[in-house]
Amino acid sequence: MHTNTANERVRIFCPATIANVSCGFDVLGVALAGVGDHMLISRSTKKGIRITKITGQDLPLDPHENVAGVAALALLDHLNSNAGFEIEIYKKIKAGSGIGSSAASSAGAVWGINYLLGSPLSPQQLIPFAMEGERLASGVAHADNVAPALLGGFTLVRSSNPLDVVCLPSPSELYATVIHPQIEIKTADSRRILKTNISLTDGIKQWGNLGALVAGLFKEDYPLIGRSLEDVIVEPVRSILIPGFDLIKKAALDAGALGCGISGSGPSVFAFSKGAEKAKEVATAIQAAYTPLDIPFELHLSKINPQGVCLEKA
Ligand code: HSE
Predict the structure, then answer these.
(1) 17 catalytic residue (yes or no)
(2) Which residue's alpha carbon is at the smallest distance from atom 6 of ligand 1?
(3) pLDDT (mean) for 72-86
(4) Does the annotation mark 134 as catalytic?
């Protein structure tokens, strides 16, 4: 921990994240390097939180209705702090995109405020407050987006209560290609359609894959990572909400991606590849397959972000 109480304002990058990563529903997540929001957080003489500017999205300025505000207020309450902060949010990640829009804002708010207060808490300790933002966004305080947004790389939520988050290694040549069809799927809606019970047969497949995926990350075993990117529980239910999901997956795998699945609660779909060149080929193949559908989309190509939320130069 370090002190920096002399700082009056901080400009930060808040990464997009892929939650679930196929077989790790609600427990696995990874931060992206190339996609994210920006925030400017300043100390204020007025106690409490004020959100003074949001660009890129039509979101509430009332801190009690905004995920960044709720997360920030939870942190100040915990610290019993009389401090005041103004937050500006520059959204690049669209709400309802499936790449952790609410997590980026929630994680950024608590990270920036903690920094300006002299870092009384570690990034790990900030996770529960960022989770309050997720509770506002989806009704469930899941940590699989905010944990990688705050800690970087891959993270595994071994337990939510009590919170126990494990950092996993990121293989150096792992790249993500993400397609974001421009439709909105609310996390709350895509959670509502999930079954609450699973069969033992599906459970066995899923935890076999999750264990092997974690082993693949440690061993930098790309084929093992690829074989493990399978979701027999959530993907069959949610993929019907994503127009062209099967087309995207086939194009990605045919082009040589290691694996492909729904990013978070969708509609974004991610593919992992070994190396930047392969990730580009996968992007080209997905683009060719998706263009005929006449649904506008964005494509992102990104390395894994090892750091999570970080300072930006002014
Ligand atoms: N694990 C959450 C879900 C992530 O899939 O509902 C939402 O981004």
Answers:
(1) no
(2) 265
(3) 96
(4) yes
**Cβ < 6 A, ligand 1 pocket:** 19-20, 25-26, 142, 144-145, 187, 191, 264-265
Q: Nearest 10 degrees: CA dihedral of 181, 184, 187, 192?
A: -100
Q: Per the confidence metrics, is the pTM higher than 0.90?
A: yes
pLDDT tens sequence across 117-143? 999 999 999 999 999 999 999 898 999
Distance 94 CA to ligand 1 centre (A): 15
pLDDT band at 209 (very low <50, low <70, confident <90, very high): very high
d(CA 99, CA 15): 9
Where exactly are the structural domains of the chain? 9-168, 174-303
Atom 4 of ligand 1, residue of closest alpha carbon: 264
CA distance 145 to 268: 14
Q: Give the Cα separation of 161 and 76 in Å (integer).
A: 21
Superfamily classification of domain 174-303: GHMP kinase, C-terminal domain (3.30.70.890)
